[in-house]
Design a protein that fits this description.
Elements: E1 4-7, E2 10-11, E3 14-15, H1 17-21, E4 28-31, E5 37-40, E6 61-66, E7 79-84, E8 95-96, E9 114-115, E10 121-123, E11 139-147, E12 152-161, E13 168-172, E14 176-183, E15 186-190, E16 193-197, E17 201-205, E18 210-214, E19 220-227, E20 252-254, E21 266-272, E22 275-281, E23 288-293, E24 298-301, E25 322-327, E26 334-341, E27 345-346, E28 363-370, E29 385-388, H2 398-407, E30 414-415, E31 421-427, E32 432-434, H3 435-438, H4 449-452
Parallel strand pairs: 13-21
Antiparallel strand pairs: 1-2, 1-5, 3-4, 4-20, 5-23, 6-7, 7-23, 8-22, 9-32, 10-29, 11-12, 11-32, 12-19, 13-18, 14-17, 14-19, 15-16, 15-18, 17-24, 21-22, 25-26, 26-31, 27-30, 28-29, 28-31
The structure holds 2-(3,6-dihydroxyphenyl)acetic acid and fe (ii) ion.
């Protein structure tokens, strides 16, 4: 297949080192965050100078997908044009998918099945079922806030699957998915082309896109942040300057790829209002021969993140490690931030270097992709999760505290190992917890015990009491 791809006019293609190391096919990608891309799998498939000619090259149909309102300001406007063999509309009616999926929630504003609690919650990793379970069947909602109907808020899901999606595609009319695989690689066919995603990488599949997820390693598990409120952006860098954190050129978007021909009984599964609907069609939705625009899926290798840090004293707030953010209308306050705890040097003097004890007006959901998290010596396992909601106190466990303080003030520079990678979804909206997650056999009823043995080290010594009224 003749495949040319361009990025703002300049031909720029990229091969992913992670794909090569993971033994994947040598796919090509377009590099850059938020670019206006153009990609064609057949030379000349993109029309010249206009988007919707009377007759498109090769007899293709032109179809637009809008990720923002037509009238959104130009700097926020996101849309792409597909040139495809048949338009998406060519399908039978949507019906509720049977059997009904019982573990997905899209509206937390009136969700009776949800629980609220200010207590610290932690989940052990889930076992991956032996029964055939694809990515759609394997999704379950943990918590969230707001509602997909008013297009504000988010849901946090996890997935545990063991089978590839067969003759079916998923599409989400509720929000953007940011997928963090923790175990097992994902091979994703999209209308824009193919992406291969390994643990340590993330992928963003925005509102509306159709995609099918294959599991080349069989069992796979991970986390999904779904945002109802808008699209992910790179954070502003402020005084950091023009470079640092996630670099725009490390975001990779697929090049056009298509499959034609007749498919009997292909199913499009659309998540709409938190429920799943299914429609049959007789062709693959991955029939886009060429596309262009700035609304497109992308992947990012978290190991490429360039961290900044305190280099003299004190522990910086975790916002310094923000990879992507979805801002709210309030300046500086995110609907949700995606933050990582990457390998980095800790060099600060006379400082308690692990995370401080704290209470936060934002709610913090954490997951662990591999290794050990710097704030927890035990109990927080890869594939597990924790939730510390608005103003719920938390911090390092007793063991981490005792070990760090015992090591004394003259700590040598210390490198957090590249064998560990944790992340946080942090939101200004307080989540409700699904009934399923709250009653899950994987919930850790002993979580509070990791702090309960924190001793008082208070020693008044011979100091005089300053404010003694007597
Ligand atoms: O609670 C956590 O472990 C996440 C976190 C890490 C950190 O370094 C500082 C604050 C914070 O909330
Ligand atoms: Fe925290």
């Amino acid at each position: 297949m003749d495949n040319i791809a361009s990025n703002n006019g300049a031909v720029k293609e990229h091969r992913s080192r992670v794909d090569a190391e993971a033994g994947f096919e040598d796919l090509r990608y377009l590099s850059g965050f938020g670019n206006h891309f153009a990609s064609e799998a057949l030379k000349g498939a993109l029309p010249d100078s206009q988007n919707s000619p009377l007759k498109c090259p090769y007899g293709l149909y032109a179809e637009q997908i809008s990720g923002t309102a037509f009238t959104a300001p130009r700097k926020a406007n996101q849309r792409s044009w597909f040139y495809r063999i048949k338009p998406s509309v060519t399908h039978e009616p949507f019906y509720p998918r049977q059997p009904l999926h019982e573990h997905l929630v899209g509206d937390f504003s009136n969700e009776k099945g949800c629980v609220t609690t200010p207590t610290q919650l932690r989940w052990k990793p889930v076992d991956i079922s032996k029964a055939r379970t694809d990515f759609i069947d394997g999704l379950f909602t943990i918590c969230g806030a707001g509602s997909c109907f008013v297009r504000h808020g988010y849901a946090i899901h996890m997935y545990a699957a063991n089978a590839s999606m067969e003759d079916s595609a998923f599409a989400n009319a509720d929000g953007d998915f940011l997928i963090v695989p923790q175990q097992g690689r994902l091979w994703i066919k999209t209308e824009f082309g193919r992406l291969q995603v390994s643990p340590g990488e993330i992928v963003v599949l925005q509102l509306g896109f159709r995609y099918s997820i294959d599991l080349p390693d069989g069992p796979s598990r991970g986390y999904v942040l779904e945002v109802f409120s808008g699209h992910f952006q790179l954070p502003d860098l402020g005084p950091i300057g023009a470079n640092g954190l996630a670099l725009p050129h490390d975001f990779l978007t697929p090049v056009a790829w298509y499959e034609g021909g007749v498919y009997s009984g292909f199913k499009v599964v659309q998540k709409f209002g938190g429920a799943l609907f299914e429609a049959k069609q007789n062709f693959s939705p991955f029939n886009v021969v060429a596309w262009r625009g700035n609304y497109a899926p992308f992947k990012y290798d978290l190991r490429k993140f360039c961290p900044f840090n305190a280099v003299l004293f004190d522990h910086g707030d975790p916002s310094i490690n923000t990879v992507l953010t979805v801002p709210s209308e309030r300046p500086g306050i995110a609907v949700v931030d995606f933050v990582i705890f990457p390998p980095r040097w800790l060099v600060s003097e006379h400082t308690f270097r692990p995370p401080y004890f704290h209470r936060n007006c934002m709610s913090e959901f954490m997951g662990l992709i591999y290794g050990l998290y710097e704030g927890k010596a035990e109990g927080f396992l890869p594939g597990g999760a924790s939730l510390h909601s608005c103003m719920t106190p938390h911090g390092v466990d007793t063991l981490t505290y005792e070990k760090t303080v015992a090591a004394g003030d003259d700590l040598k520079p210390f490198r957090i190992s590249g064998d560990s990678l944790a992340f946080m979804f942090e939101s200004s909206l307080t989540p409700k917890i699904t009934h399923w997650a709250f009653n899950s056999p994987h919930i850790d009823p002993d979580y509070y015990k990791c702090w309960i043995k924190l001793r008082s080290h208070f020693d008044q010594g011979t100091a005089t009491v300053e404010n003694d009224e007597n």
